[in-house]
C-alpha cells in the first residue's frame, strides 16, 4: 500500500469577495480511514471539498489526492475517486440504466454488477429517468455510481441532506459494507452525526472557515465530559478546561475538553460525570457559529 495519504490539504485559503470562507486549513485523510468533516452551515465544508476535488481553485495552498496534485492530475485522479455530491448533476432526462452504461465508458475499473445489484437493492427501476426520482433515490443512484467505479477514495458531500431517517441509515449501511469489503478511504462532510459516529476514525470540525479540531475520534471522545454539580464547580483546582459553564437546576453544568488529563475523578466534588456523543461534542465546539453554507 502506498504511504501517501488518501487526501492531503495544505494551507487552503478560499475567499468570496471580502469574505474568508476557508482560512488556512491543513488536514490529512490517511489511507483506509474514514474522515468526518463537520461544521455548521457557512463553516466552509463545501468550499473545501470543491478545492479537494479540483473544482475550485483556492486563493492559497494546495490539495493532493492519492499522492498527486489535484490541479495537475485531476482527469487521471477522478478515475480513482468516487464522489457523491450534495446535489447530483446527472442529466435529468437520462434513465438510470443509461447512467450506468455511460459511466462504464468513462471509468476504467467500472463494475457493472456492483451498480446493478445496488439499483436492485434500492428498488429503483432502471428505466426511470433520473429527474423523476425522489431526492432519496437520486442520492442512492449517485452512491451506486460512485461505488461502482471501484474507488480508492470515496468523497461524500453532505450525502444525507434532506433524507428521512430510513434513507439516511440505508445510505450509510451501503458505505459501511464497502468499507468492510474493500477498505476504501472515505472523506465525508455531513450533518448526520449519529450515523457517522459509528464509522469515523478521525474528525475535523470547521468553525468560521478555520479547522478548530482535527484528531482521532476515540481520542476526541475520551477528553470531553459533561460534569454536573449541586453547587459551583471548581475546575481550576483540577486544571480542567471548560468550553461551557452554565446553571443546571440549582447547581452547575460544565463541559470540559481535557478530561483525559485528570489524574483521578475523585479530585472533583461533583454529582455526575458523563461521556458525550460526537453530536454533543460538536454542539459544544461549534454551537455558536452562524452563516449560510457555501
Describe the structure using short key phrases.
294 residues, single chain, globular, 6-stranded mixed sheet, 4-stranded antiparallel sheet, 9 helices, alpha/beta
Helix content: 25-40%
Q: Return the average pLDDT rounded to an integer.
A: 89
Oligomer: single chain
| Structural class by secondary-structure content | alpha/beta
Q: Unreliable runs, pLDDT <50, ≥5 residues?
A: 289-294
- Bin the strand percentage: 25-35%
Q: Biggest sheet: strands, sense, closure?
A: 6 strands, mixed
Radius of gyration: 21 Å
Q: Concise description?
A:
The chain is α/β, with parallel strands linked by helices. The chain has helices at 45-52, 74-77, 96-104, 112-121, 135-148, 165-182, 193-196, 217-223, 278-286; strands at 7-16, 19-29, 34-39, 60-65, 68-69, 81-84, 153-157, 185-189, 202-207, 210-216, 225-229, 242-248, 251-256, 272-275. It contains 9 helices and 14 strands.
Secondary-structure map with pairings?
Layout: E1 7-16, E2 19-29, E3 34-39, H1 45-52, E4 60-65, E5 68-69, H2 74-77, E6 81-84, H3 96-104, H4 112-121, H5 135-148, E7 153-157, H6 165-182, E8 185-189, H7 193-196, E9 202-207, E10 210-216, H8 217-223, E11 225-229, E12 242-248, E13 251-256, E14 272-275, H9 278-286
Parallel strand pairs: 3-8, 3-9, 6-7, 7-8
Antiparallel strand pairs: 1-2, 1-4, 4-5, 9-10, 11-13, 11-14, 12-13
